[in-house]
Design a protein that fits this description.
Elements: E1 8-13, H1 29-44, H2 49-56, E2 59-69, E3 78-88, E4 92-101, E5 104-116, H3 128-138, E6 144-149, H4 151-169, H5 174-177, H6 181-184, E7 186-192, E8 197-207, E9 210-218, H7 227-241, E10 246-252, H8 256-261, E11 265-273, E12 276-284
Parallel strand pairs: 9-10
Antiparallel strand pairs: 1-3, 2-5, 3-4, 4-5, 6-7, 7-8, 8-9, 10-12, 11-12
Amino acid sequence: MQRNEFRCFHRLRVRWAEVDMQKIVFNAHYLMYIDTAMSDYWRALGLPYEASMHVLGGEMYVKKATVEYHASARLDDTLDVGLRCTRIGNSSCLFTAGIFCGDRLLISAELVYVFADPATQTSRPVPPALRAIFEGFEAGADMAEVRTGDWNTLGRDAGRVRTEVFVHEQGIPAEIEADVHDISARHAVLYNRLGMPIAAGRLLQQSPGVGRIGRMAVDRSVRGAQWGRQLLDALAAAARARGDTEVQLHAQRSAEGFYRRAGFSAVGEPYEEAGIAHIAMAQRL
């Protein structure tokens, strides 16, 4: 088993509480590491787990887990947990996991999941849509697409994502979150392969040649999988396509690092808006 066999990885650092009296990671924790990596796998697929299972009409249950121990992890080791779907049967899916320290394989594992009715826990055939998503991801296919358009076209889905993030999660009043600029803005919505909106943002015309990106929102359960960056790049590309030479945005301070990594620089001093710390940022196109 090699690192290059995996497309999805979860990185972690061994904590003191995970080491046993032999000063190595207690064997049962490796299954917890793999289960944590499974959450990253769903994010990489662009699938908010609970909402996606509701759409698919079932749940994924572990039927069998097999672990083989090759070497031990120790306190403060940085581990990479690789996960891939290796086989799909009628109602079951086989996942293979590898836990690496650098290029050294420490743990290999196989987990059999069964797709089943959540009420009765009786097996059901793996839905064709989910089968296609697993197969597509492992083949290197894109798991989401950005659509751009006006409010009449995308407003319902954009509003759904923004309301969940800004109103329900962050507590911003609904009357502040939605404004008159939505009608004139260029909107972008990121859809997963089930057709579910998982991220949204908009582009305004700040002034001639200057665009303003705003209302950037990503579904909480799939954050950290580069979906926000894909959406941001699409909005910047839309600004460039209409002839803008600069894009500006007002970033929440908690997301400042994300925008800096995307090439934005801070402009001016931090300020507060809707009870949340912000900073203005800009990027030349």
